[in-house]
Amino acid sequence: MSTRQTLNAVNQPSSPPDSSIAAEISEPSRSSSSSKITFRPRKIRKVSSVPLDSSPMMITASPLSSKSTIDIALRHLQTSDEVLGTVIAAHNNPPAFESSSTPFLSLARSILYQQLATKAAKCIYDRFLSLFDGGESGVLPEAVTSISAVDLRKIGVSGRKASYLHDLAGKYTSGVLSDEMILEMSDQELIDRLTLVKGIGVWSVHMFMIFSLHRPDVLPVGDLGVRKGVKDLYGLKNLPGPLQIEQLCEKWRPYRSVGSWYMWRLIESQKTSKTKLSK
């Protein structure tokens, strides 16, 4: 696949965590419809402190951009984790990672959506696109740099976010970042390089890797929805911390992105059930 073809395959989030689930995280989200998931969470014993790199076999998985890859991921998760398999079986719709945006546009959009409700964020994003010839196809680093902070504030972008957008665009125009470089970076390289951009933290990079780059084995240990999902899935008394989540979800490798997707769906389903019961 050529670089241009690969760029066209990079997607925007099709089903990121619900904004209320990730209330403690400053990032955009759009929830998807969920079927009611009913199962009895299984209590677990104390997590052993086995080194995370002690697995006898490490598998490299393909990007989550085809139905066949998703099917393989689901079979692996159902086989490796019986409790998660119950959640997967109860959910009618499999994960979908579809749309077509370049890495630069995806990152710019994530900045604009930060700390905003979905409806308000989309309104500002649409105004942002109107500043460029050709809409999304015109959102290029040089074009973003040419728009002043004053003009961005006129469409509802805060001064801080304007500085974030200019910093992102500046790193592209200076050669520190490029779409081609991003597509070739390892997961850790992406975290190290992208968090140098103002306004982009580790959580943002995790969401970018899952929903835009379709990386199959990303575990967003700082995401509130994933933490709540893992807590309920395994019957924990308290929200697990990063190390405990990594230990518990080690069995999901090399498809921890898909396992995380089901944690968001699990929490959404529970919220829907509570809403119905309260009526």
Automatic annotation (TrEMBL):
<feature type="compositionally biased region" description="Low complexity">
    <location>
        <begin position="19"/>
        <end position="35"/>
    </location>
</feature>
<feature type="domain" description="HhH-GPD">
    <location>
        <begin position="112"/>
        <end position="268"/>
    </location>
</feature>
<dbReference type="InterPro" id="IPR003265">
    <property type="entry name" value="HhH-GPD_domain"/>
</dbReference>
<keyword id="KW-0234">DNA repair</keyword>
<dbReference type="GO" id="GO:0006307">
    <property type="term" value="P:DNA alkylation repair"/>
</dbReference>
<feature type="compositionally biased region" description="Polar residues">
    <location>
        <begin position="1"/>
        <end position="13"/>
    </location>
</feature>
<feature type="region of interest" description="Disordered">
    <location>
        <begin position="1"/>
        <end position="40"/>
    </location>
</feature>
<dbReference type="InterPro" id="IPR011257">
    <property type="entry name" value="DNA_glycosylase"/>
</dbReference>
<comment type="similarity">
    <text>Belongs to the alkylbase DNA glycosidase AlkA family.</text>
</comment>
<dbReference type="GO" id="GO:0006285">
    <property type="term" value="P:base-excision repair, AP site formation"/>
</dbReference>
<protein>
    <recommendedName>
        <fullName>HhH-GPD domain-containing protein</fullName>
    </recommendedName>
</protein>
<dbReference type="GO" id="GO:0032993">
    <property type="term" value="C:protein-DNA complex"/>
</dbReference>
<dbReference type="InterPro" id="IPR051912">
    <property type="entry name" value="Alkylbase_DNA_Glycosylase/TA"/>
</dbReference>
<keyword id="KW-0227">DNA damage</keyword>
<dbReference type="GO" id="GO:0008725">
    <property type="term" value="F:DNA-3-methyladenine glycosylase activity"/>
</dbReference>
<dbReference type="GO" id="GO:0032131">
    <property type="term" value="F:alkylated DNA binding"/>
</dbReference>
<dbReference type="GO" id="GO:0005634">
    <property type="term" value="C:nucleus"/>
</dbReference>
<dbReference type="GO" id="GO:0043916">
    <property type="term" value="F:DNA-7-methylguanine glycosylase activity"/>
</dbReference>
<dbReference type="Pfam" id="PF00730">
    <property type="entry name" value="HhH-GPD"/>
</dbReference>
